[in-house]
Structures are given as structure tokens and as C-alpha cells.
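Format notes (please read before filing issues)

Several people have asked whether sequences and C-alpha cells are stored in separate files. They are not. Every record keeps both together, in the order shown below: the sequence lines, then the C-alpha cell lines. Line labels are part of the format and must not be stripped during preprocessing.
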Amino acid sequence: MIERAEVLVLTHRLSRRRDFGTGSNLTRDSVVVRLEDRDGHVGWGETYLVPGVVEAGRAMAGGIVGQDADRAASDLAAAHGLHRWALGAVSMAVDDLRARRRDVAVAALYGERLRGRVRGYASSRGYVEGMSAQAAWLEEAGAVWDDGFRAMKLRIGRDDPAAEMGAIEGLVADGPGMTWMADGNGAWGFDDSLRVGRTLDGLGFRWFEEPMPTNDYAAYAGLAGELSIPLAGGEILESAEAAEPFLRGGSFDLVQPDVSICGGIGGALEIAATAAAAGRFTIPHACSGVIALAATLQLLAVLPVPVDAPPWAEPVLEHDVGENPIRTDLLADPLRLDDGWLAIPNGPGLGIEIDEGSLRRLVA
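Then the structure lines:
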């Protein structure tokens, strides 16, 4: 039985501003759910700090105190109208708790373990004030290569597209032998997105992510039809029902559900099934702290991929590499890459052990 529930806001002020094509931020923030049962098992969940999520998370987590964890999981999965971002964290924590009670990994709650490791790709910190885009990317690519990454996703869209493509050409020529991807962060209209996509395709990029505004995913269908490079997107889609028209309509070749946004691992698998029914593929999005990262690894352990899937649909882990102690400082035994690969933990629950002292030092 669940006896205690906490919803905590963690925050870290960055040493320098984090800049993207369409915005910036000065802090890294997460909302963390901690559940404890009467036997002392603890389950953890995490989501992004967005309006209403803390209040919704506290109401949701408080509402399952006194319930059996399996019953809570079932009730949450069947409920309608819940705040999906809050549900992501609460569902994650319930899964962690009930898997620990069984002494199995969370992946075992969702089916057969299909893989024991995945490739990780470095998700760029963004632009750096006072440095050209090419210089910043070269510096960062060298650093993450030394950290074990063999693939990297650039965050682009700030500069004139022609100048930015020149910088990317220089990076590919002079940088380490990465597999490259690019995220446009919704910066461009159709024509610029088409030109950039074709240039990236010529440079061998694996995919092109969200180049146009994300408030009109339907508009992506025309772009996808004109590009040979796989078009990726949909990280803010909150459910399979929300994703279905865009998948059927051809907006994405790759849909990118986020376990913190779409209601947890179960919600992400529902989106993946909807994608498969539409002939599309799924690679999850992850850009927060280590709890959500661990949950994404559990999702990747069971994510089905057709045997005839193209190489660009291989399951990979997005691993943010920007400054973020919510990702780097909470584990006594950090997750480590080995020549581009990251083992999927097979221990109880999410397979990680949180240092609560380090976590609570980040509570806002």
C-alpha cells in the first residue's frame, strides 16, 4: 500500500544562458514525484515544470495514497481528463514502486525485454554566447566524443539558414565522425525548412526534427512529402489519440513521444502502436533529468521495431548533454556510455538508486 507521496520542484541556475533557435533559459527545472509504500519501497517519477503540473501532480499523487500500487496503476491508466504531464511523473513513480515490489525491472511490467543496450546520442546544449555556431559545435562535439558518444543532434535555427548550413558543412568536414541529426526547434517556415532539409540530407544526417512551428503539426505533412530525409517530431503530443491524425496524415516519419509528457511508459507505447499502424516509427524524446532518462531506457527495452525497419528507425536514447545536475548529480553509480552504447539497467524498478541528499539540495 502507498503510504506517502511527495511532489518536489528541483531547480538549478545555469552558469551561462542556454540558447536555442527560438528561445533560451537560465535554469534547469524538474518536477519529481516520490512515492513510498508501507514496506519502505520508494518509487520515483519526473516531468517538466509547466503551468499547473505541480498542483495536478500533488492532487494525483495524494489521491493514490492508501491504494495498492497495482490498483493505482490500473486506475491511472483508465482515468480521463488528467493533466498528462503530471500523469507522466506519477505513473513513472507507480511503475518504479510496483516493479521494486516484484524485484524486477520496470520494463518487465510492459512485456518482453527486446534489447539490453541502446546507442545514445548527445542532444546539444545549444548556442554559446560569444562563439560562432561552428566553433561551439566543434568544441562540444569533441567533448561528447571523448565522453563516449558517437552520435549527436544539433540544435539549429537561430541564424540565417544559408550561413547556418555553411557552419554545419564545416562541422561535418572538421568534426569527429559522428552520426548527425538536427533539431530546428520550430524556427522556420516551409520554404526554409525544405532548403535546410535537403542540405542536411545531402550531408547524410539521420533525421531532421521539428523545423516548423509545433502548433501546426498538420503542416508537416507537405514538408515530409517533399523531403527524402526522415522528418521527426511530436514530442509534445500527449496521447495516442492526439498523435493519430498526424501519423495517419504523414506529418512524421519518426514520432518522438516523451514519457514525461504522454502519461508515462504506457502512454508512449500506445503512441508507438499507433505509429506502427500508420507505417511510421518511434524514437522517444528525453530532455530532462536522470529519473526520466532511466524511464526512457526502460521504454526502449520493450519498444517494438519491425524487422524490416530502415536503419534510421533503430531505437536510440536522446541524452541531453547541457549543464544539468538533475541529470548528473543524483546517482551514486552514474549511467555510462561505452563507445556509443549504453546498457539498459536490469535491476529492480527503474534500475537506478537516487541519492536523496543530492536531490533535496536541489529543491526550490
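For reference, the curators noted about this record: The chain has a mean pLDDT of 96. The domain at 2-103+355-360 is CATH 3.30.390.10 (Enolase-like; domain 1).
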